[in-house]
Amino acid sequence: MRGLTGSGDGGGASGGRVTGGGSGNRSGGGNRRLLTGWAASSTALAGLAVFGLFTVSCSTGGTGTRDEGPAGSQPVARITPTASTPSTAEPAPRVDAVALLKSDPKVSGRVRTDLKPCTGDEYPVDTSYGSLTDAPAADVVVNVMTCGDSVGVGTYVYRPRADGTYQNVFTTEQPAVYGTIDRGDLVVTTQVYGKKDAVAYPSGEEVITYHWANTRFSELDRVHNDFNRAVGAGEGDFPEPTEPTKN
Questions:
Q1: Helices marked H in 103-228 — which ranges?
Q2: What pLDDT score does 145 carry?
Q3: Which residues of the chain have pLDDT under 50?
Q4: Assessment of whether the complete model's pTM goes beyond 0.70
Q5: Angle at CA 123, nearest 5°, toward 141 and 192?
Q6: Which of 27, 54, 82, 167 is the most buried (most CB within 10 A)?
Q7: CA–CA dist 28, 10 (Å, integer)
Q8: Nearest to 226 by CA among 198, 200, 202
Q9: Which residues, listed in sequence order, are joined to residue 206 by a DSSP beta bridge?
Q10: Which long-range contacts (CB under 8 A, 24 or more apart) does 159-166 make?
């Protein structure tokens, strides 16, 4: 800061004019008093500025964030994964499907006679368990096939009784038939063959959906699919792979 110089004739300070009234002595005394007051005010202002800087530096702590205690003093929340609840559903009781078929009068004599093990004690029988008839236990769908080419010859549905026995509630016996459980309904698929069709290449299929109501199965939906007869008719080479086109 540049100094201020008083003059006996009431001269001002460089950079500003201070005018005193009266004689030169009074004027000089007034200037001295003004200078003394100015210096005191400047010192006070400088002290306030330093205090303000000190206060700001303390409040920020030099980190640019607000200080409200030691870092990491707050507890960290942790999520503990809960163990999944195990399933309480009991597995469906297994049945002797071969014994059911051989003791069932609704099964034709031919199927019962031809039902023999293919190898060892393995019978050509598939068994499915599920809910079809709203019974207290799982219903049983049994498919009987041939040993040589696994072509279905019969589909049967057995409903459990309260005493643990089973009742035959559905029977269909025809070539290339197979039954499955689909979302609570019985779906029976039958392959359709022409006169010159090989077993592996049927001409089409019939897909019939049955729904249980009023103590019996009723047809709910029927779909017929025709297959392309050219598929599998000859042997051909696969085309050579080509590179994808790039723009």
A1: 109-114
A2: 96
A3: 1-69
A4: no
A5: 60
A6: 27
A7: 7
A8: 202
A9: 190, 224
A10: 159/132, 159/133, 159/135, 160/135, 160/136, 162/136, 166/95, 166/100, 166/140
Question: How many angstroms separate the CA atoms of 130 and 92, rounded?
Answer: 8
Sequence-distant (≥ 6) Cβ neighbours of residue 183 within 8 angstroms: none
- A 10 A CB-CB count for 95 gives 16
CA 218 from chain center: how many Å?
A: 37
Compute and round to an integer the Cα radius of gyration of the chain.
51
Buried b (16+ CB within 10 A) or exposed e, 47-68: eeeeeeeeeeeeeeeeeeeeee
Amino acid at 117: P
The tokens of 16 are what? 């500003």
Residue 47 belongs to what H/E stretch? Answer: helix 24-60
pLDDT in tens, 9-31: 444 444 444 344 444 444 444 44
pLDDT of 86: 59
Which three-class secondary structure state does DSSP give residue 33?
Answer: helix
Burial of residue 83, with CB atoms counted within 10 A of its CB: 0-12 exposed, 13-18 middle, 19 or more buried: exposed
Ranges of beta strands (E only) in the chain are 125-130, 139-145, 152-160, 166-172, 177-182, 185-192, 204-213, 216-226
End-to-end C-alpha distance for the chain, whole angstroms: 74
